[in-house]
Amino acid sequence: MSTVDRKILALAIPALGALVAEPLFVLVDSAVVGRLGTDELAGLSLASTVLLTIVGLCVFLAYATTAAVARRTGAGDRAGALQLGVDGLWLATGLGVVLAVTTWALAPWSVELLGAQGEVAVQAVTYLRWSAPGLPGMLLVLAATGALRGMLDTRTPLVVAASGAVVNAVLNITLVYGVGMGIAGSGFGTALTQLAMGAALVAVVVRGARAAGATLSPALGGILGHARAGLPLFIRTLSLRVAILLTVWVATGLGTVALAGHQVVHAVWGLIAFALDALAIAAQALVGHALGARDVDQARSLLRRTLQWGVGAGAVLGLLVGLGSGLIAVAFSESGDVRHAVTLGLVVAAVTMPLAGWVFVLDGVLIGAGDGTFLAWAGLATLAVYVPVALAVRAWAPPGAEGLAWLWAAFAGVFMAARAVTTGLRARGERWAVSGA
Predict the structure, then answer these.
(1) Where does residue 213 fall: left (phi above 0), alpha (psi -120 to 50 degrees), or beta otherwise?
(2) pLDDT at residue 420 greater than cutoff 80
(3) How far apart are the first and last CA of the chain?
């Protein structure tokens, strides 16, 4: 195994465990709530989409911090790197409190906007409001994890994420069935877990900052600088979340069976996406570190090798998901119609997973290089390609399982192909590889 491979895997393997924590939370929630009924599972689909959209829009707290901290680390400025991490924690705290209050207050409106009615809407609002207090914890996890990745530490987030996944499963089962809270127990259990995870990771970053001599008090200039640096990645992520929300809206129009099936397919896709993104996280940190040290050749070597890993891992995971689609469907629903929809959707998603591996790794390389402005424009361009295709599915696809298959062909096929083209062309050029801290 080459030195580059060892560096990639040393970061990617621990990052894998940390990255799958959030989709594992969704999978656990889906499995627990799915046994309550189809309305509850469909409601969870809408509520988790809103919640993950909010958190997803704030992923710049992790990505921008990883790139900036990695560059400072590569340049030999450890104290400056950890100061950036502390600034990110303060920004995450403020955003988390504001978003928690807003999510609770606007829960009925956000669910109605996605087209939910009747009992499905009631279940979605319940989950959203009970999970909203966990938002500050979720954002602190992002910011602290980004700082640690930039320091080339993916092991600490792994330990916290693995512990959180176990705690979340126990709390969900206990609160939903033992206490009898229903879907509210699932949301509340996840919120408690996220707050505990945020506190644990913040403690690690603060301890490192004190040891390096970094300031712990909030600095307005540093916080605003973090926000400005994260704006292009926010726009890029917004385009992705709009595409995901549009996909859920289309699934809602295809009927309750399609929507319930979409929740399971999307949860599995999220798990695989985060698994593949482990390679992107390794690329972010290593490319940022190499460019900070002014080693452009090393950055390009990392680009080539992580792409090979991404496509290969996508092919293997796609094969496993395709072959296991029927078993996965049985695990998440008692309904024969929903199982059929899940199976078809997973098979379509499985075929596109090598392409997804390519896309996620390229995203990681460009984020690690600080190429956020390009990613923002590319995100808007790919969204423009996807919107008419998704609207065509809503208008002409049949309801139920067949419609869900067409929807996933549009999202995992057309949308991901557009992302592959834009980022692939960028990576072939020279403008992304800017060296220096």
Answers:
(1) left
(2) yes
(3) 30
The C-alpha atoms of residue 162 and residue 43 are separated, in whole angstroms, by 27
* 305-362 tens-digit pLDDT: 888 888 999 999 999 988 888 888 887 776 777 888 888 889 989 999 999 999 998 9
**1 CB-contact burial (10 Å; exposed 0-12 / middle 13-18 / buried 19+):** exposed
pLDDT tens figures, 248-286: 888 888 888 888 888 888 888 887 887 788 888 888 778
Structure tokens at 304: 């080539």
Is 0.90 surpassed by the pTM of this model? no
Tell me which residue of 197, 335, 352, 336 sits closest to 268, measured CA to CA. Answer: 352
CB 16 within 8 A of CB 275: yes
CA 403 to chain CA centroid, Å, is 25
Instruction: Provide φ and ψ at 14, rounded to 5°.
Output: -65, -35
What letter represents residue 326's amino acid?
A: G
